Amino acid sequence: MNILIAPDSFKDCLDAQSVGEYFKTGLLKANPKHKIKVIAMADGGEGFVSTMLQALGGNLITIQTEDALKRPLEASYGILKNKNTAIIEMAAASGIEHINDDDKNPLVASTFGTGELILDALKRGCKKILIGIGGSATNDSGTGMAKALGYRFLDKNGKELNEGGGFLDKLHQIDSSEKTILLDNAEIIVACDVANPLTGKNGATAIYGPQKGVTSETMELLDQNLGHLGTIIKEQLNIDVLTIEGAGAAGGLGAGLMAFTNATLKEGFDIVKTETKLENAIKDADLIITGEGKIDRQTQNGKTPFGIAQLAIKHKKSTIGIAGYLGDGYQELYDFGFTAIFSLANGPITLEESIKNTPQLLIDLGQKIGRMLEI
């Protein structure tokens, strides 16, 4: 049997390639004659860079930059073997993973470090940049990123604003006269899997702000500041980011990338499936196996396993889902192309035990499913 294993990462546990390889080991224990292909997947969040490098080949580049609070940080991104395409995760520099809970401050948090990653890739000759924007610690709508690329954000007196979403109410002029000319010939594509607008009750600040330290006292200020920035962008750059779905992603970085780099927003899964030629692999397979750390009702909202199941339906192939944990509503996925869905747990087990033993649990489940295929 030709089997395609195309999992996402198991967050805080294993990267996607490792998940696939361990599961493949289990399947081959059941029947070593299976022909098995592993394609690591991602949706633009954690693991986006490693997945693309594993699938397409390339090198990891590490530079000295700064985190969202302007502290020194080493951050990495990938350049594919064609030397023309860079793969960036904004979280590598400006992610919440680098900020302790007590230090979170969306009033001053900046995407400047992300801009430095983009600039470094451009200077190395990359003409195409794919950037995943999940996991941000910021609420500055990419103004810090734009500053690293040469933009200046000025108040009514011509003085440059401090970085961070808390100062955008003072913005009077966007000065692009010194932006890097390297942007002129670059194609930037953003992996964005949310449809949130920049402002309002479903906007960047209201929905994602609290996890970044936004309080009831700062919520209205930060939301209004993003609205003010959006108005200035429309007036001075002729781009209406206030009406675009996904503009609110990553504290408004979606809007900033569109406004300041002429980026295009796309679903992360769509980017990865195209670059990895996933659909061709599905056509050639007899069975598809996919998964992620948790499968539940929310998996329907653009998550990798759901996207894979939809492609499998298109080509009349069966799909098995695997997960470390099955949450509420996972059964609904049976109506959307999943033939079966399995949890790794083989009995009562704590989260810590599950994470520690995930490699062996994947092998065991792979062997069980492999034996079922022999029936």
C-alpha termini separation:
13 Å
The number of strands is 13
**Helix vs. strand class:** alpha/beta
The low-pLDDT segments are: none
pLDDT averaged over residues: 94
Structural write-up:
The protein is 35% helix and 20% strand. It is an alpha/beta fold and 375 residues long. The chain has a six-stranded mixed beta sheet, sandwiched between helices. α1 packs across α13 (358-372). The model has no long low-confidence stretch (mean pLDDT 94).
Detail the topology: elements first, then pairings.
Blueprint: E1 2-5, H1 16-30, E2 35-38, H2 48-56, E3 58-66, E4 72-80, E5 85-89, H3 91-94, H4 112-123, E6 128-132, H5 143-148, E7 152-154, E8 173-175, E9 187-191, H6 204-208, H7 216-237, H8 249-261, E10 264-266, H9 268-275, H10 278-284, E11 287-295, H11 304-314, E12 318-326, E13 338-343, H12 351-356, H13 358-372
Parallel strand pairs: 1-2, 1-11, 5-6, 6-9, 9-10, 11-12, 12-13
Antiparallel strand pairs: 3-4, 4-5, 7-8
Helix pairs in contact: 1-13
Describe what is shown at a glance.
The protein has 375 residues and is an alpha/beta fold. It is built from 13 helices and 13 strands.
Task: List key phrases describing it.
375 residues, alpha/beta, 6-stranded mixed sheet, 13 strands
